[in-house]
Every structure is written in structure tokens, then in C-alpha cells.
Amino acid sequence: MAEQQVLDEPQDDVLPAKPRLELKTEIKDVGPCKKHIRVIVAKDAIAGVMSEAVQEYAGKAEIPGFRVGKVPASLVKKRFKKEISDQVKQRVLMVSLDQISEDSKIDPINQPNLDMDAVEIPEDADFEYEFEVEVRPTFELPTYKGMKINRPVREISEQDIDNYQVGFVEQYGAQEPVDEAVAAADFVNVDIVISRNGVEYNKIADQMVRVMPLLKLQDGELAGFDKLMIGAKEGDTLKAKIKVSMEASTVEMRGEELDVAFTILDVKRMKVPPVDAEFCDRMGFASVEALRIAVRRTLERQVKYEQRQTCRKQITDKIIESANWDLPADMVEKQVDNALRREILEMQQAGFTSQQIMSRENDLRQQSLSMTRRNLKEHFILDRIATEEKLEVTELEIEQEITSMSFQRGESPRRVRARLIKSGVIENLYAQIRERKAVDLILDSAQFNDSPFSLPQDRSTSALERSVCVTQMVAPPADEEDAE
Description:
- It is a single chain.
- This protein folds into three domains: about 5-135, Trigger factor ribosome-binding domain (Alpha-Beta Plaits); about 150-165 and about 275-455, Trigger factor, domain 2; about 175-270, Chitinase A, domain 3 (Roll), CATH 3.10.50.40.
- Helices cover about 45% and strands about 20% of the residues.
- It has 15 helices and 14 strands.
- Strand 7 (about 185-195) and strand 8 (about 200-210) form a beta hairpin.
């Protein structure tokens, strides 16, 4: 049964902190995490706001034949009817929405679905308007202290540092053309043609792809990509099948196997710079040993990331057991990109390489809806715990995260911060740190069963930031975008 709540004015013996409107509000459930709100503002309250607005205009209006501040209110109201009406509408809506937020227990996720231009305030009647708004789900917090958790642990070895350093240094290498057959780990510049039922469906031109066992696109993947490419030469066209993800955005193509043809435009091989004093100086390190110390710290962050993700999943598995509330499909769909940005941001903070991040992003895109639905529930629960425990994020903590991310990207913290602000991801960073604090608080009281694990040094996957099903505009390179 739909919930209905009627909110009336507070008792007369309670002095309001600021002027209030006389209004009544009806709130009804119209779906998961969605409320329909009907508001009635008394005409006497409207008249009061109108009177204030007319007085303000009368005090500054310049009308021929009258001194400023001496224009009759009736003339001001007539001369500035539209301006005054717009101001009254804006004030009434803002004040009434603020009162609803204060008086009710609803917690909006975003701005109400309200068409301001369509709202008109009557001259001599109660003002009524209604809207729908998405709200945070209401639920009882489960017990989150004293949990039993399996925790992955690892001591960073010199071999771990060597393995990571290979991928790190490659980011600063140069791809050089070779007049030879394709070898494992080479880079091939290819035109990709995807066909469906014998008809060309999508073309992805001029893409540089590394020859690895698995090629991942945003909504599909091709196993055995290295076997397909090794031994081929410039000008060859190689054919295979690629399977569309079951959660691809193009619903009718989910699970289909499509024909794909790769035409090799050229072949390149990576020339990696030596890790010597000159390279370390260019990267801002005093010595090779200083670089290795920085790599060790990055790997320690990755261990913490894996611990946090593994423990977080166990924590959320347990606390989500009681989360039998549903989320509206449109909310989940709108949050898909935001959930991806948050996951990518966490991997950047943990020091993963660009290729590892892109590979993980394509994994997530292939299961985006189910992943987002789960992540939203996690967010609501952890956010609620953070609120209950009064956990906040300081500017120093933001700076520390940005500094860690800048090392991995080989950029200044100032530039990384500017990009986060420009893209709007800085808010995600705040939310992530706050949720991480909630997880850490749970872990502080947890009982652990430690087990060793392997670092995710996956060098078997090549990721392509393109879609099988959707033709995409080619985005400008990151450096050009940053330079704007």
C-alpha cells in the first residue's frame, strides 16, 4: 500500500529559525526510491511574499514623475507585474521546498522533477504544485561490527617490484615500426570491421592494439587474439568471431556472436627506456632505489586496495542480505557511468596502470547493470554507516589521494586536481574516501582469517575503449584534452 504523509505547520509554541510559509504537503510512494509530492501553499502566504516583493521594487523603482522610493505600490505592481510574479514564484518554490526538506524525513538523491516554467501562481487562490523526486531508500542498518572476514595478505617481494616496474617503465617507451611479422606483445594498428548476418554493422578505424591473448572491448571480447595475429604482416586481413556481452547497452544483440575482421595497417614494437639515473631524474626520483621504494609503496596500496575490495565485498554481502529494498531501473541506468568512474578512480588511487584500468573498465561495462545495482546498494549502506558514525573527509586527505594518483600518471598533483575538477570526478573522490572510512571502521572491529594472494599483474589482456555494438565518436587524446 502506498505510504501517505500529511505535513502541517509546527506548533505555535515553537519559534521558527526563519520565516515559514503556511503549507500542506502530501507525500506518496510511487515506486522504489521515488516519491510523488503535492504541495498546497495558502493564498495568504502568497500575498505576504507578494507584498514583500512589491515593497522591494517600490524602494528601487525608477518611474518618471516619481522620486525613487516614493512610487505607489499599485503602480509598481502594475508596471513590474511579470518581474514581481517571477520573483514571487521563485521565492515561494525555494522556501516551500526547503520546508519540505526540513519537515519530512525524505532524503532526495537529486533535484526534483519540476518544470519551473510551467508553474503559475494564481492571484487570489491557494497555490498548488506537484512533482516526483528520487530519494534514498529507508532501511534498518544491520549489525556491522564484529564480523568474521577472510582477508588477503601479501608481503611485497623484489620480484613483485621487478614485475610492476616492467609495466610502469613501458608507459614511457616508444613504439617503433618494424618490417617483420607480428610477434607476441607487438602493437598492431588495425581497421576493425564488425558484421552481423553477413552485413557490415560497425567499423572502428585506425586503432592501436597490443597483441595479447585476450582482447576486451566495452561490450564484448575476443579470446585467442594473440594466436590470430602472431605471424601476420602489414596488409593482411584476419577474421574471427567476437561475442557480445549479456549486459550490452544494445539489448537485442546481447549474447550474439558477430563476425570481426582486422586489417593490419602497420606493426610496431615497444622500445623501453633503460631504468638508469637519467630515467629516474626525468621521473623525479633521486635514484633507482628511490624509484623502487615508490613502486613498493604503490604495490602496498594495491594490496590494500585488494584487501579493501575483498573485505568490502564480504561486508556488503552480509549487510546486503537484509537489503530487500529495490532500486528503480531508470536510477540504475543513470548511475552506470558514475559507478564506472568511481571504480576507475579507485584503481587510479591504488596505482594500477592505464591498460589494467581500461581492461577492468571493459569488464565492468560488460556487467554494468548488475554491477551498478549492487554498487548503489553498497553506497547507500556505507553512506548511512558513515553518517551514523559521523565520518567526514578532510582537505588533507583529498590532497594525499591526489598526490598518490599523480605519481602513477607521472603528472603534477595540481594538474591531476584540475582534471578531476573539470570532469566532476572530485565529488566521487570525496564519496569514495568517506565510504572507505566506513569500511575501515567495520574492519577495525572485525575478526580476520588471513590468506595469501597474488598481485593482479595481468599482462594477458589488451583493452580497447570502443564498443562492438555502438558506433562512437573518437575522443581527443588525453594530453590534448588536458591542454585545453
